[in-house]
Amino acid sequence: MEAIWDVFCGGYDCFDGSEKPCGFDYNFLSRSSSCLTQALIICFDSLLFILLVSNIVGKSMKRVHMSYQIRNGSGLLILSAIFNSCVGLVYLGLGIWTLVEKLRKDHTALPLQLWLSTSFHGLTWLLLSSIVSLWSKQLPRALLRLLSIAAFVFAGVVCVLSLFDVVSSKIVSAKMVLDVLSVLGSVLLLLCSFGCFSCQENEESINGNGLYTPLTGEANGSGKLDPVTPLAKAGLLSKISFWWMNPLMKTGKKKTLNIEDIPMMREADRAESCYLQFINQMNEHKRKGQSSQPSVFKVILLCHRRDILLSGFFALLKVLFLSAGPLLLNAFILVAQGQQSFKYEGLVLAVSLFFSKSIESISQRQWYFRTRLVGLKVRSLLSAAIYKKQLRLSSEAKLMHSSGEIMNYVTVDAYRIGEFSFWFHQTWTTSVQLCIALLILYKAVGIATIASLLVIILCVVGNTPIAKLQHKFQSKLMAAQDERLKTFTEALVNMKILKLYAWETHFKNVIEKLRKEEHRWLSAVQYRKGWNGILFWSSPVIVSVATFGACSFLKIPLHANNVFTFVSALRLVQEPVRSMGDVIAVIIQARVSFTRIVDFLESPELQSSSVPRKCVNMNGNYSIRISSASFSWEENSTRPTLRNINLEVKPGSKVAICGEVGSGKSTLLAAVLGEIPNLEGNIQVNGRIAYVSQTAWIQTGSIRDNILFGSEMDNWRYRETLEKCSLMKDLELLPYGDLTEIGERGVNLSGGQKQRIQLARALYQNADIYLLDDPFSAVDAHTATSLFNGYVMEALLGKTVLLVTHQVDFLPAFESVLLMSDGEILEAAAYDQLLAHSKQFQDLVNAHKETAGTERLADLSATKSLRTSSKEIKKSFTEKLSVVSDANQIIKQEEREVGDSGFKPYIQYLNQNKGFFFFSLDVLFQLAFVACGITQNSWMAMNVDNPNVSKSRLIIVYLLIGVTSTIFLASRALLTAFLGLQSSKSLFSQLLASLFRAPMSFYDSTPLGRILSRVSMDLSIVDLDVPFSLIFAVAATSNAYASLGVLAVITWQVLFISVPTIILAVCLQRYYFASAKELMRLNGTTKSMVANHLSESIAGAMTIRAFEEEDRFFKKNLEFVDGNASPFFHNFSANEWLIQRLEMLSAVVLASAAFCIVLLPTGSFSPGFIGMALSYGLSLNVSLVFSIQNQCNIANHIISVERLNQYMHLSSEAPEIIEANRPPSNWPSIGKVEIIDLKIRYRPNTPLVLHGISCTFEGGHKIGIVGRTGSGKSTLLSAIFRLVEPVGGKIVVDGIDICSIGLHDLRSRFGIIPQDPTLFKGTVRYNLDPLVQHSDDEIWEVLGKCQLRDAVEEREAGLDSLVVEDGSNWSMGQRQLFCLGRALLRRSRILVLDEATASIDNATDMILQKTIRSEFADCTVITVAHRIPTVMDCTMVLAISDGRIAEYDEPATLIKREGSLFGQLVKEYWSHSASAQLF
């Protein structure tokens, strides 16, 4: 037995040199290195080893391909496996190294205790960590927990014994360090074994080619895998090394990436999963009764707490390993001075440097990757929550949150909050890092550390007032940005109206004024950010000067080892400290954005329960029942919008609603839909509703998508719907049939075509109740009649119909007619009864007869439904569709640059306002700052141990260099802010001018979302991020190269490693940028799709709710959000992929330098320069990370400049003013219009829309223009206003060719009342007279003539009464009257009416016609009308067919002429009127 003991420990323990055999001294149990302790450790390891192996063999493990889907702590499991494997490997390596040394020196492996226990312990630990990580699913849970508890206790005991050794011997060995680390590893094992995780194993058999064959239906091709990101199935090493990104990176190198090449997100990371988790957590809080409205921030934290904690663990690990650097450096300097603790200590330190830097890199990459992923998920769920909210927003809340603001919440605020999570852990890691650094500093310079602490505290305290100001300014900036975007959005949506009224310059000036205010707050924010930068970038310089000064004062000796331990500790924390300003800025931005979003999410919603909808019951007594109800758009209003409403509509009945303008007709339909708050009474609805709005809402997409509206395709029903809505011929003549894309808001359709598609959408739904809000006002009499017959009377037979209409001749066909006035139902009876007993109804009918007899009732007996001729339809689509693409699809693919655009976007940015000059100064100051830093450290390295240089001189010179560097730094920071402000100012001015000068064809073919994403998010990035990203990229890169340069100069031998490393790094960066730039561009284009869908949904929210399609639209939004998230996710993953590889290269360079220092003879380097080299080397990977991050940031941010530039150089309209050819101030004085051989086409190589029209409108004549749909009437008006330029011929007005003068001079001299009435957000006065050219008396007079005076006087504010966005608090008729008021105020000699009275009742129409006749008696009035009576009293009538003049003469002459087109239209009209009378 003693022989075995001798073999094991050599007979005597060598720990203290005593002669007593170790086997007999049980006090040795208190020492970890005693033979008895080592023997017990081996015994315990053997038991553990046997237990593990027996369980593995007993389970007869199959070869499996494991796909882990770990619910809790997957990162923890990965970390445990890596950490414990590393500990086990180092134990094993230490044991083997000890054996090799023993054999080399003594030529014997005895005694065994010196190496066997360490090796065996390492092997056991390695096995234990592997089993817990890889086979935990197949081991009994109890056994797993028993093993982890035993490992924890065992590691704890060994650690305590090692600490006793350290205290007693005052020597630290590598094994003792490993013993301490093994406790940390055992804690991780304990957490893993007690954590609840699940693994899904996909067993695979191995085929002959060595490939895994799935044992599922997919093996034989029965299924197809979804293109989900490889991360979903990545293994441990793949996740750690980002190897799963390789396939995408290879694809990006081979070809330009497209959206189809980007894999989808994992299921758990998609918007739907994130949103559902958020909602479930919110509901859980409400169930627990914690509060009626849980904190959104708290819920978001709870949803992602595991990911946040895990990333926090990686952050802590990174900080700990980073902090090991100065300690290793101190040891290196001591070794260089010949004070090594053991042989080969230098080599061990070099290897330790490499491993510590590698683990630090892995930890930081996992930290950054996981926090960015959390941020992306938060952004997705907020985008989803905002979209969901806007679908339920109440009318009152819409006044507080305009569509522009809602767009900002998604495109700006949600993105800012998503970015915050990346910085989240830096709020505390910087503090931890500082604390550890202070401990290291204390070890280096003792009590002088107090000086360091005081300076750091002063920096933080000094930043507090700046941070408060920053928060205030950021809030003001966001509010100013909202105001600017709100007005910008309104202008873009209504650009055609602005051009027709020649108001572009005014609105452009308004936006410039708002931008000026925004720029004021932007300046405040950027300069405060600059001051932050000065404070935090200069803090390391100030700290070091203060500390060395304190050392001199306190007589603390300064030597190379403590000075450069101090410098390296300071260099390691200076990047986090410098980024503290950015952290504060991001926190402030996120807080402001979060407050705005939470305020929106807590806004009032529509009360869906206010209108109970039940399934239809045809045997029921009613479809709609309203009892003694009052409704108001404003809940606190003293006078409800609708009062004392009592209504019961039976199933299958047809009810018409009529009344004067503003009487509450559309509001009644809104009440049935539940859109308006119910103040009192009850309302019930039985059945599904289909709704057709007064203003057509058409989605971007195909005609089929607009009609189906989410329903399943039923070919028979679909075809019948097309026939009833007279769309068959239209579709046959289109190149893609019903798959033809129609533009945003249906810009390539006529008003009638849009309404027919709306009607088809409603009919296809096969609903029970149809609410039709004046759908026939946009079509001519023939069309309206045919639609009324085929649609209302036939297709909707047996359906409940509520039709709002101004067409009195439709009313006899209805079972009941509601007569409304001033928000009340005056009468509700059959047509004949009302006509007999109601004086007000009689007045309405008589007013209609006076305008021209009855109008527009369908020819009930006619078998001919609307059949527009092939030429008419073709003409309509030639006129509108040719505006767009040669591929016959209106919406063009969004523009994006491809490939490497090099320095082009940077040049575009720096070309603004002497940008190159300021940037050159910036770079110069930065290089001077870096040079000062190197000079400072070189001075210290050369003279710290120089007895000829006094301490006071050493520190004074050091101080002077530091002050100089701070001056350079301050200049750089302020210049950067100034450069950014100047560039932003210039870019915005160019963008604004370009957009306002762009022709209408651009707006017809470009979805609003694309423009808005540029003037919101892209502009915000250019304003706030680009300037500082640009200079930080230069700063971080110069720091990285300075570190590398210092390392190479001092240890020139490292150049043999560093030069190839630099070449490899450049190659890796180029490889990365091939994919990264395209991913960022795709991120921009997909972001536009999110914005566009949101914009459309806000506009059509009422229709979406009416059809109960909220869920489908929400699902579509989730798809768009995921489509945007995927390129963003893979972009930042690619970023981590690159940085990790570069960090490993920098670790190789640092380790190489360390090996050079160790292997070269002692004295080759002075201790001071060794300290300097390694202090720069230790910060090399930190500098490199910041360099690459900032380069990637600016590469991503500069894409926004690229995107802005795409819309900064659009083709422009003709000049607004031609100074050399301005018309006289009284032009046009006569109003004579000569059209000479006018030819119009919308684009080159498209057919002519107008074919050589020639005619003359004499001054003072009243000209009526008639023709069927698509004949060219609107194109002629567009030509008069030069919205489209002629390709041949000319238009001469009072002797002046309109093409020879400026557009502003032309348009401002004409008056127009457009077909689509448009009001702007503001006041009544602003809407009538935005240029402030008229007095209040003139405005009141005009309101009286427009029948609006009473409506305005009823409102308390009078002319200052509020007009909300789109004028939605005024009825459609009232909006049209406001447009008439504008024309009356302008009093032009030429007035154009484009179906201006379509939305008003006949009585009002009659008064208005008289007003126009009297007020414009001596003016030329050009009227395009569907109502034949409107043109009957015209001087001349111009009939257009297929872009040519069919006839032009007096109405009476044309009626008598045989084969006259006008005569035919009049005949059709009177035949319909006769039918109405017969009915």
Automatic annotation (TrEMBL):
Membrane topology label: Multi-pass membrane protein
Establish whether keyword Lipid metabolism is in the entry: no
Q: Name one Pfam family in it.
A: ABC_membrane
**Which InterPro entries does the annotation name?**
AAA+_ATPase (IPR003593), ABC1_TM_dom (IPR011527), ABC1_TM_sf (IPR036640), ABC_transporter-like_ATP-bd (IPR003439), ABC_transporter-like_CS (IPR017871), ABC_transporter_C-like (IPR050173), ABCC10-like_N (IPR056228), ABCC_6TM_D1 (IPR044746)
| Catalyses which reaction(s) | ATP + H2O + xenobioticSide 1 = ADP + phosphate + xenobioticSide 2
GO MF terms here are: ABC-type xenobiotic transporter activity; ATP binding; ATP hydrolysis activity
Annotated ABC transporter domain ranges read 624-847, 1233-1467
Keyword set, alphabetical order: ATP-binding, Membrane, Nucleotide-binding, Repeat, Translocase, Transmembrane, Transmembrane helix, Transport
Return the protein name.
ABC-type xenobiotic transporter
Species the sequence originates in: Cucumis melo (Muskmelon)
Q: Which classification does the entry list for the species?
A: Eukaryota, Viridiplantae, Streptophyta, Embryophyta, Tracheophyta
